[in-house]
Amino acid sequence: MSVLQKTKLGEQVHLFFFFRLSREFCRQVSLFPSSPRLNLKSLDGRKEEEVTIMLSRLQEFLSRHRRKFIVTGALVGGTIYAARYAQRKLVEYQERQAREFFERTRRMHHFESTERTCNQVILGMGEEMCQAVLHECSTDELLEQLRQNPTNKLELWEQMKIVSFTRLATFVYASSMLVIALRVQLNLLGGYIYRDIITEQRQVTDELKQQYLSLIRHFITDDGIRDLARFIRSKVVEVLKSMPLTRQLTLADTEQIFWSLQMAINGDTRHDPNSKMTKYLLPDLSRLQQRANCSPLMQQMYNETLDMLESEDCVSVCVHNVSRGFSLSCDAIAESMGETLQHLAPGELQQQPLNSQSQTKQSNNNNLLNVNTVLLALAKLIPIVSGLTSRGYDSAARPHNLPTQLLSFYVVSEKSKMLGANVYETFSSG
Asked: For the chain, how big is the Rg over CA atoms in Å?
């Protein structure tokens, strides 16, 4: 067979297969009459069967993995619920923190305002208190008699000794007691007022404020200062009665006198101004109840004030203040002694014997006088002690006298401020 014949035979085979494929395609699309038509009902039935099979398989799948879906749903739902719960609690926490911060800020501002008012009231009442002490422990009459050079000069100097030390000790105790009492009263009253602001009530009226704050008038204008000065005078007599006016004293001896006086006063458990300060500061409850306009709230505040002033916190603060007050007094005496000794003649100046080291130091500082080694007669110490307390509170005087120093120190004392803050915190949140 030639190449040309083979080529024609291949073309015929290709045409035959092409014709067969074309005819089969036309039969499927019904182009030839002999091909059958498509059955739509059979197609719908087949689809329904497929859908049924698919649903049954899905049901079987869900049935087989039911626990997994339940657990997964519970976990997802629980997570969503927990997230929403946590979000709600976070919002509540933030709102609560904001309210607490706002309340703390408002309370702090109110407390600072109360503290400023308290300081002003203390200094104002301190002037009256100092005048009451000067009136009760006056040395004017004794000084006037001494200027006339009477025959009983020694007896008058003995009285000056008792009155001078009594007045100084009375200033120390009375100033501390006044500061503590007003700290307690004003912060207790401030706590009640703040509670009225929070609760939008009107329990503390202006009349009640005036009545409550007037309780301290018993200490200044009634019997408080008088009873305190008389009690301290009795202890001064015990300590100084046997000490002659000619006794030579050093600064350390003077400190020992104040320490002995403090121990004698604090050792009397019936009249101790530290633990029994309410006896001097406030009137009796029976006298308070005799007032026609004494309300139950007034009696409640009075009883709470008594409890606070008799507490260990107040007693410890008063003891600390008194000790610091006597230390300030010794410092003031040392300063006054230095000024006094500069005006003495060289022959009038006596000093304790010095050891070799002290002599070396003094030889290197010939122009400096060590007041700790100077001996001074008690008769010359009395004018110094009396001069320190001869005037009352005077903030304009420079340098400050002893009563001004005592009140100023007690007002800014950290222990006194902490006591007032504790009282305010207790009654503002009650």
From this structure: 50
Residue 136 and residue 170 in contact, taking contact as beta carbons nearer than 8 Å:
yes
Asked if 416 contacts 314 with a C-beta cutoff of 8 angstroms, the reply is: no
Say which DSSP state 152 is in.
Answer: T
Q: What backbone torsions phi and psi does residue 376 show, to the nearest 5 degrees?
A: -130, 135
Show Cβ contacts of residue 342 under 8 Å, excluding neighbours closer than 6 positions: 369
- CA dist 124 and 129 (Å) reads 9
| Closest among 419, 430, 427 to 181, alpha carbons compared | 419
DSSP code of 275?
A: T
Span 347-378, pLDDT tens digits: 455 555 555 444 444 444 433 456 677 788 88
Contacts with 89 (C-beta within 8 Å, 6 or more apart), sequence order: none
Percent of the chain clearing pLDDT 90 (strictly above): 33
Cis peptide upstream of residue 399 (ω within 30 degrees of 0)? yes
Using the 8-state DSSP alphabet, how is residue 221 labeled? Answer: T
Residue 347 tokens read as 């022959």
Distance CA 198, CA 105 (A): 13
Please tell me the distance from the alpha carbon of residue 416 to that of residue 318, in angstroms, as a whole number: 9
* pLDDT at residue number 8: 52
CA-based nearest residue to 31, from 21, 23, 43:
23
